Amino acid sequence: MPPSPPIPVLRLTDVAALRAQVRAWRAGGEGVALVPTMGALHEGHLSLVRQAQANCRRVVVSIFVNPTQFGPNEDFSRYPRVLDADLALLAAVGADAAFLPDVATMYPPGFSTTVTVAGLTEVLCGPLRPGHFAGVATVVTKLLLQCLPDRAIFGEKDFQQLQVIRRAARDLDIPVAIEGAPTLREPDGLALSSRNRYLSDEERRTAPALHAVLQRVAEAVRGGGATAPALAEGRGLLAAAGFAPVQYLSVNDADTLAPLERVEGPARVLAAACLGRTRLIDNVAV
C-alpha cells in the first residue's frame, strides 16, 4: 500500500487560539516546543523541528516576517513568502501546529513597547543594522509569552541573535528554556539560509569560501594565537574571493560577544559579508 499522506498541521492565527491549544496539550501532560521562523523554510529549519520533537511531544512553528527587524534599505519587501510550501514541509516533518499571526496581531494599533538588550547588541551586526536586535528581541519576547512553551529552538547560524534571545529570556524571567541548534550546511560548507536563493549561480559557487575562511581563522587562533594577523589574512581572502563589502570578520567571546585579542576560553569566529546583493552571515566555534 502507498504511504499515507502527511497529516496537515493545525493552522492558528490568533493568540487566544494558540494559548487554548497549548493549554489543552499541557492538560494531557504533553510538553510543548516553539520554533520561531520567518518562513521560506529549508532543511535547516526542519532540523530545528526535529530537535524540538526529541524533547517535547508537541511542536509549534511560528511563521511571521517581522517588519521591525528590517532596516529601511533591507529586503523586507522581497523576503521570500511561500506559505503553502512551508506548511507542506511542516506536515511532512510532523510538526503539530503553525502559528501564523499577521502584523496587526503582533503590533496592534498603539503598540509602543520595545525590548532592548544592551551590550550584546553593540557589536558585530548591531551597529550595522540599527534597531534590528530590538525588533528581534521584541517579537521573540512576544512569541514566547504568547505560546509559553517549555522550550524554544533557534539555530546557531545567527549566533548573536541566539545570545540576545537567551539574555532577554533570562533578564525578563521568561520561563522558557532557550536552546541552540547546530548550523546545517550544504556539502560544500555553505550554511543553509532562506537568503541563499538570492545568489546567482556564480555567487553560489563563491559562497562556500566564507565558511572556509572562518575555519582557517579558527584554526589559527585556537590555542591562544593572536587574532589580529589571522583576521587580517581572512579579510584579504574574502575580498580576493569576491566578497564586498566584508562587513566584519571577528573573534569574540562566546558568552559576552566581546572581541578578543587572544582566545583563552569558548569563542566564536563570526562574519558578515556581501556577495552582490546578498548578505551572508556565518560563524564557527573555537
Automatic annotation (TrEMBL):
The record's Gene Ontology cellular component field reads: cytosol
Pathway annotation: Cofactor biosynthesis; (R)-pantothenate biosynthesis; (R)-pantothenate from (R)-pantoate and beta-alanine: step 1/1
Main EC class of this protein? ligase
Per UniProt, subcellular location reads as: Cytoplasm
Catalytic residue positions:
45
Q: Please tell me where (R)-pantoate binds in this chain.
A: 69, 161
Which residues are recorded as binding beta-alanine? Answer: 69
In alphabetical order, the GO MF annotations are: ATP binding; pantoate-beta-alanine ligase activity
Source domain of life:
Bacteria
One biological process term in Gene Ontology: pantothenate biosynthetic process
| Other remarks on this protein | The reaction proceeds by a bi uni uni bi ping pong mechanism.
Q: What does this protein do, in the record's words?
A: Catalyzes the condensation of pantoate with beta-alanine in an ATP-dependent reaction via a pantoyl-adenylate intermediate.
Protein known as: Pantothenate synthetase
| UniProt source species | Methylobacterium tarhaniae
Q: What is the lineage of its organism?
A: Bacteria, Pseudomonadati, Pseudomonadota, Alphaproteobacteria, Hyphomicrobiales
